Amino acid sequence: MPNYLGVDYGTKRIGLAWADDLGIALPIGAFPGVDDPSYLEKFREVFEQKKINEIIVGYPIHMDGTVGLRAKEVDVFIKMLEEEFKIPVYRVDERLTSLAAEQAMGKQSAKKKKQNLGKIDASAAGLILRDFIENRNVIPAPVIIE
Fold first, then answer.
1. Helices 69-85 and 39-49 meet at what angle, rounded to 10?
2. Rg, the chain, Cα only
3. How far apart are CA 74 and CA 67, in angstroms?
4. pTM for this predicted structure
């Protein structure tokens, strides 16, 4: 029985969502991003608690379909996840997921929006995971020449 973890990658925050074999993507929160040395420990806690066996990461493709510097950062992050957890990690086009998550939360004051940044990241992770579950439109891993 699959347990999926949806990930909205970020340097300041990482948003997470979870789904099991029922296929309902539920935002589960956010924690400090990759700029914070504790992120991997927090990631491991969620991984073990939810018994994750597939990870789905939002992949930042430009609106014109090209891959930029941010996507290359995500590739490094994905490689680390694959090595650390030894399970499949899939890339899903995340264009506009953060914007859609913000719009879903409605109009808020700047102060309220700042307080809800983690909720926005978790909601974006939920949209990424839902897209994977419903469509299985994964982006193939890039060929990295070293």
1. 50
2. 15
3. 11
4. 0.81
